Amino acid sequence: MKIRARISVTFLAIVAANLVVFSLVIYFISEYFRQKHFYTRLGDKAKTTALLLIEEDEINPKLLQLIERKNLTSLPEEHIIVYNQQNKVIYASADTTGDLGPHNDLLERIRERKQIYLRRSNREIAGLTYTHQNQEYVIIASAYDEYGLTEMAHLRTILAFGLAFSLTLVGWSGWVFAGRFLRPISKVIHQVDQIKVSNLNQRVDVSDNNDEISQLAHTFNSMLNRVQEAFEVQRNFVANASHELRTPLTIITGQIEVTLIKQRTVEEHEAKWKAVQDVIKRLNVLANNLLELAQVSLDDATMKFNEVSLDDAIYQATKMLTTRRPDYHVIFSFANETEAMQSSLTVQGSISLLISAFLNLMENGCKFSPDNQVEVILGADEQWVTIQIKDNGIGIAEADIRHIYEPFFRAENAKRIHGYGIGLPLTYRIIQLHRGEINVFSRINEGTNFLLKFPKTL
Ligand code: ADP
């Protein structure tokens, strides 16, 4: 069932329950007062009859019958019977006693309780005792409350029609208002439905009132911003990756074509093939980096972590770097000597990924510094292991800092130095996987300081 129908039905059910209870209460209270009023009249009638019959000697039953028949105030279908102490009828207003004939148990009950009111097939009956000269008489008066019952029938009709009319009105207005209140949601659904890959920049309208629906629209828009951003990063990634792969392939093709134009000496061939080999090596590095980035971008849950000593990972990364580039230099120190040296530098992680991250940062530091030198400062406290990787190189412009973790981003001042812009995004993701933090402080032409923090294994 749709929300609109659910709201309307719930609203209708609540109002219907209230109205039905209210109508029943009105009906039964009215019925109670009708009966009470009629019983009073019946009782009065019975008492007057007894008074005339028993206490006035001049009035005999025949005369009383005559008086009653001519009495304009008598009740509809009025029937009065008087019994003496021996339960003998001494007076009956009509010739027959009808269903009020001598029911001894009824007479006993009246004598017992002195006064009784009951209803039998639409007739109200009042029974009471009357004592005169030590004789106890029983008078039973019955009549049909024509006026009262007609009024009650009218009340029933009014309540039934009123109920039906009110519920129709409530059902209709509930449906209309639920529709009106839900219209903005339907609008949001419709607008979100229209957003496809081709128009990801489209947004949902946000109204000025700060209600739940405008918050929902706002949330959708924030989500769309993130989706669009992720989509664009992905698109740029694919475009950049293809570009970076195509460039070396074009160079290789060019080199081979030039070589094949004419006959070459062995030395010339060697030189060309060496150049081609260099390009292939770089292509290999790029392919490996891309693969690594794709792997660490997978779900964290697939990663297997062990205890890793960070000083060991840094040592191995340094060895790899200096073996590859003997002209690069790495200087070690401890931030807070005694504490960091004594403290454990172990974290939960993957040693190969951590080596890869440190290698990238150290290589960048050396690569982007004229002195090809980087300083690694290790520190630790109760909860964290910190590593600073500092250089005195070209630095990063403030505006570029927020882009350096985007794949293929290369700052303008770094473009003359070879690179692909994959190392930092890879490093960032690796630090993220280790629940660590990475921050960079840099000034153009003064140097760069990458500050890493890893939570300690307790
Ligand atoms: P690459 O080193 O291949 O260019 P990275 O992803 O490692 O790619 O770095 C991205 C960019 O960040 C670099 O091109 C450079 O502009 C900037 N950068 C990173 N490290 C440094 C650094 N130590 N000094 C100056 N710039 C840096």
Automatic annotation (TrEMBL):
Q: What is this protein called?
A: histidine kinase
Which InterPro entries does UniProt cross-reference here? HAMP_dom (IPR003660), HATPase_C_sf (IPR036890), HATPase_dom (IPR003594), His_kinase_dom (IPR005467), HisK_dim/P_dom (IPR003661), HisK_dim/P_sf (IPR036097), Sig_transdc_His_kin-like_C (IPR004358), TCS_sensor_his_kinase (IPR050428)
Q: What is its EC number?
A: 2.7.13.3
Task: Alphabetically list the UniProt keywords.
Answer: Kinase, Membrane, Phosphoprotein, Transferase, Transmembrane, Transmembrane helix, Two-component regulatory system
**Alphabetical list of CDD domains matching this protein:** HAMP, HisKA
Q: Which GO terms describe its cellular component?
A: plasma membrane
Q: Does the keyword Transmembrane helix apply?
A: yes
Residue ranges of domain Histidine kinase in the record = 240-458
User: Which GO MF terms are attached to this record?
Assistant: phosphorelay sensor kinase activity
